[in-house]
Amino acid sequence: MKTALLFPPQWYPSQPYLALPTLKAHLESKGHEVDQFDFNIESYEIFLSQGYLEYCVETVQKRLSLPAYTNEEQEVKAVYRDILSDRAFLDSILNEVEDAKNVLRDEERFFQFETYKKAYTTLKMAMKLISYAHYPSRLDLDSFFMLGNPEENLAGILSATADPVRNPFIKMYEDYLLEKVAWNDYGVVGISIIHIGQVIPGLTLARLLRKRFEHLHIVIGGSVFNRHADLLDNKQALFEEFFHSVIVSEGEKPLEELVSHLKTDKSLATVPNLIYMEDNKVIHNPKAEALPYDQLVCPTFDQLPLEKYLMPYPVLPYMSSRGCYWGKCTFCTHSFIYDSYYRKENETRVAEDLDHLSQKYKTKYFTFSDEAISPNAFNRMSKAILKRGVEMRSLGMLKFESGDKESPELFEDVYKAGFLMLFFGLESANDRILSIIDKGCDQDTERSVLKNSSVAGIWNHLYLFFGFPTEEREEAEDTIRFTVENAETGTGTIHSVGQSIFALEKDSAIYHNPGKFKIDRIFHDPDRDMAIVFDFDIKAGMNREEVMDVYEHFDTVIEETFPSRKIWNYLSREHFLLYLDHFGKEEILKMSRTTATR
After folding, report:
1. Which value, to the nearest 10 degrees, does the dihedral of the CA atoms of residues 572, 578, 582, 583 take?
2. Which terminus of the chain, N or C, has fewer Cβ atoms within 10 Å?
3. Residues 333/507, Cβ–Cβ less than 8 Å
4. Cβ–Cβ contacts within 10 Å for residue 91, how many?
5. Please, what's the b/e burial string for 126-147 (b: 16 or more CB within 10 A of its CB; e: otherwise)?
6. Can you give the C-alpha Rg of the chain in angstroms?
7. From residue 446, how far is each of 413, 415, 456, 574 by CA, in Å?
8. In this structure, are residues 291 and 67 in contact, taking their beta carbons and an 8 Å threshold?
9. Residue 596 confidence class, pLDDT cut points 50, 70, 90
10. Which residues contact 185 (CB under 8 A, 6 or more apart)?
11. pLDDT grade, residue 408 (50/70/90)?
12. What is the distance between the alpha carbons of residues 131 and 170, in angstroms, rounded to a whole number?
């Protein structure tokens, strides 16, 4: 009994996701036969093709001929007419889309920024054309949305996964992707759904497989259904129409046990972390502790079409730890997903794994997918990488640590080892907000760590958000002021910034203790019983309009303060890593200033 592991659309097209390579490696180490298929990158190969875009133009023409019953339909018909009347625009997209893909795979043209930007814009416009063909659904180079968020309730899921007009993935699977796999060779199919934009594409795939190949046992894994585990008791239709079981938390041991049980026709009752249905009752098996790191094996990217990702070289994901060593941030849900169980690999083995992957797949480019790594851990890992002589270029997520602010030499080996870019979860630069977030640091720590990292040569990128419960306008202004003071025109220690608005997520500390954060009410809409993000009422701090005003104001500040936005706005983080390695930090900053003046 062979196992097929599937990664569905819609996710970034620049590198493989780590779940499948990790699970495949583990199952094979236990003697099981496993194949992995990245349907995400395969779907981009189809979407971003002249043939598919011509089909989309025909679809738009057909939809234009249908009667419009609502104002919204009338408005989109006007857009349809504009699209079809501009033949030069359509021809440019249809004729250039194939070459645009190749630009991102071509070493020489990839690093010609104006050429890159034109290709990227062409691909974005192609995805917009596809969106119009499946209106009101929206597809982009990293996401998929259907009107009304049908993934948030059972009725919506049942409807959306059977809607050939608004769901482009039905045709994608039926006409293109299903035929790529000899399904009769397999007994188990695992589908990994790791974010909301994959729910409808992933369950559409599961539904088609369930209907066509009755012999398959379909199991769902990934963070989304891990967070839905407590909602499945009255969702029998999911088990009847889409999948046979769900694995929650980390999947190596449970999936190994599931495959072994199915091979020998044993009862599923002893498979840990498994949710399944028996006699119309949804059963939750007991959980088992995740495997220690010394029982995990190096991921394998065999069978994945590395040449199809929109990159001139393979960029491979890697994890040196599971969970978050801090695990206290009150807005975060990562500790829940990993059952609050943090463990990490020893630094020597990290270096050995990177060396092995680098040589096997002929690349020096990696992205560390760890939730957060401390500066000291980064430093130890870097020393091991340097000692082994691994040629590596990478990026990673770093947490601010107060004990490291007086250690400027801490980042020197980090940079020498090849960590060119670090992502920091700043969240806020106001000490009170940092305290109630429980970040374990203050503004002084943030300033010092950023300075030390920048002096070592590293590109610092910040994530931050506005609207944390009780945050006042003046406190948000502290964050804005801190960012401006440390931007290129100030101390020069912050090189790029990404902002968002606080979202109250299920299973965060705030969600479970709203009163502690002065939240008066969380809105639980019965028609959104599978939602992950919730609206709420709060009397303290900025209201929603003020938060949006701050967000929009800061967007202008970023535009004025960070010329590099003219470049990193077009580049995914993996693309930016390659640009940093090719040009260097100072040349990127120089390029951005030149681009900004055009």
Report:
1. 30
2. C
3. yes
4. 10
5. bbebbbbbbbebbbebebbbbe
6. 24
7. 20, 19, 16, 25
8. no
9. low
10. 2
11. confident
12. 14
Tell me how crowded residue 176 is: count the other CB atoms within 10 A of its CB: 16
pTM over 0.85: yes
The pLDDT of residue 410 is 83
Length of the chain equals: 598
* Mean predicted lDDT score pLDDT of the chain: 92
Note whether 41 and 303 are within 8 A (CB).
no
> Taking the CB of residue 502, how many other CB atoms lie within 10 A of it?
17
Of 221, 225, 191, 194, nearest to 208 by C-alpha is 191
The token pair that represents 175 in the structure block: 């006409």
Would you state the structure tokens that stand for residue 66, as one six-digit string?
A: 């249908």
- Is-contact 127 47, C-beta < 8 A? yes
> Are the beta carbons of 86 and 106 closer than 8 angstroms?
no
Closest to 428 in 3D by CA, of 483, 372, 495: 483
282-306 pLDDT, tens digit per residue, is 999 999 988 888 899 999 999 999 9
Rounded alpha-carbon distances, angstroms, from residue 306 to 312, 352, 363: 10, 22, 11
Where do the domains of the chain lie, and which CATH numbers do they carry? Answer: 2-40+151-284 (3.40.50.2300), 46-149 (no CATH), 313-504+560-596 (3.80.30.20)
How far is CA 582 from its chain centroid? Answer: 25
Rounded to the nearest 10 degrees, how much is the dihedral formed by the CA atoms of 278, 280, 286, 291?
A: 70
3-state secondary structure of 394: strand
User: Can you say whether the dihedral through the CA atoms of 234, 240, 245, 246 is positive or negative?
Assistant: negative
- In this structure, the strands spanning 365-368 and 393-398 are parallel
CA distance 161 to 207: 8
Give CA–CA dist 305/217, Å, rounded. 25
The distance between the two most distant Cα atoms of the chain, rounded to a whole number of Å, is 69
Q: Cα separation of 43 and 9, whole Å?
A: 7
| Positive or negative torsion for Cα 151, 153, 159, 161 | positive
Buried b (16+ CB within 10 A) or exposed e, 44-79: bbbbbbeebbebbbebbeebbeeeeeeeeeeebbee
How much of the chain exceeds pLDDT 70, in percent?
A: 97
Q: What are phi and psi of 111, to 5 degrees?
A: -90, 10
Q: How far is CA 8 from CA 4, 71, 387, in A?
A: 13, 34, 39
- Classify residue 532 as left (phi > 0), alpha (psi -120 to 50) or beta: alpha
Instruction: List the single range of 55-64, 77-86, 524-533, 557-566 with lowest mean pLDDT.
Output: 77-86
Rounded to an integer, what distance in angstroms lies between the CA atom of residue 572 and that of residue 496? 13
Sign for the pseudo-dihedral over CA of 38, 39, 43, 46: positive
* Amino acid letter, 185: D
C-alpha neighbours within 13 Å on the C-beta side of residue 585: 20
CB 142 within 8 A of CB 172: no
Give the Cβ contact number of residue 421 at 10 Å.
22
User: Is the dihedral angle over the CA atoms 466, 471, 476, 479 positive or is it negative?
Assistant: negative
